Structure formats: structure tokens, C-alpha cells
Amino acid sequence: MYQPPLFREERLEVLHGLMRAHPFGLIISAGSDGEPVANAIPLLLDSSTGEKGMLRGHLARANPHWKLLAETGKALIVFQGPYSYVTPSWYETKKETGKVVPTWNYAIVQARGAVKIHEDAGWLRAHVGALTDSHEAGRADPWAVSDAPESFIDSQLKGIVGFEIEISSLEGKWKVSQNRPVPDRVGVVEGLVADGGDGNAEMVKLVREYGGLS
Prior knowledge:
Shape: elongated
Largest sheet: 8 strands, antiparallel
Order of helices and strands: EHEEEEHEHEHHEHH
């Protein structure tokens, strides 16, 4: 990933925080023919395993990507955090010199690691239970895997293949207007607030934090 030093984020707790907040990751592999393959799937982060954490997920058995993972033994996973378009109209510099262009603000994490495939029913049952619990937590009427008939769950587990990825490297890039003069950062915050939206609200917090405006 192209990584100017100013945008680099290396704090493990911050990287893990984005991965948990945006767990629908894009897992990418390349086979011996060099052709890239990508699938978007929900992933569960275990920060207590390994130096940088462990990712767990599953793919449909009918999806050939799991065989590619087994063949290559490695993968790249991309977690996309908040992102927002930034118009030059928000910059004070536009009024002063006009020397501005549009851009995008965003936060993103890329994880790499070795892959271990799991086809054991016990492992798969534990995994889908943990994954479900993580997303059902806090709901008024949370659903659990045990709510479905056992025979049905058993049949569903036969249709998936699990995997673990022990993270060997993590890269974080927080491009959130910290390269702009302070008046421009203020203009970005004001513009995002005026535009509204949940994604913009997340970006406003990041621009304020990384731009020293909070």
C-alpha cells in the first residue's frame, strides 16, 4: 500500500479497533497463474492470539477460493473504514490561491498472514457461534446458533470451510486532512458536518483528532 509517513498509523489498538468496527473484510489471494481472487466476508478478530492477532472466517465450500487459500497458504485482507469525498470548496486555500484539487479522506487497514484451513465440524460450529454472538450482542432479542434445529445446523456446516489467518503484518493508513493547513482542516470539518451522514460523522471525528482540532 502506498504509504506516505504522515498518513501511517501503527498503533495496534487503533488498527484492531477499525478491524472490529468494520469487520466485513476483503480477502485477496493470487494463484500460480497470477490471477487475483477476492471475496468479501465477515471476519472475527482474536487479538489475544499471536503478536498481531488472529483472523477467523469461513467460505462456502462451493467457492473455489478456499482451495486457493489452501494451495498458497497466504492472504491479504483489506478492512475499509470510514471514507468521505472532500471538495476543494471547503478549503480556505481555495479563496487564497485557488491551487487546490478534490480528494478523498479515508482510513484503511491491510492485514497479511499465513492461512490454515479448517473443515472439522467442531471447529466450524464454534466459529459460527462466536461470529454470530459478536454481531448479535446488544440486540433486544439476540439470535443464537442453538436456536435453529441441530440437524439443520449440521447440514449447513457441511456447506462451509473455515480458515484462520495468523497476522504477520498490519498496515494502517489514516488520510484525514492532516496534510492540510489548519484553516483547511477546519473547513473540511464544517463541510462534512453540513453534508451530514453517518460516514461523515465518523470522518469528522478523525479529522478533528488527527488534525489537532479536538
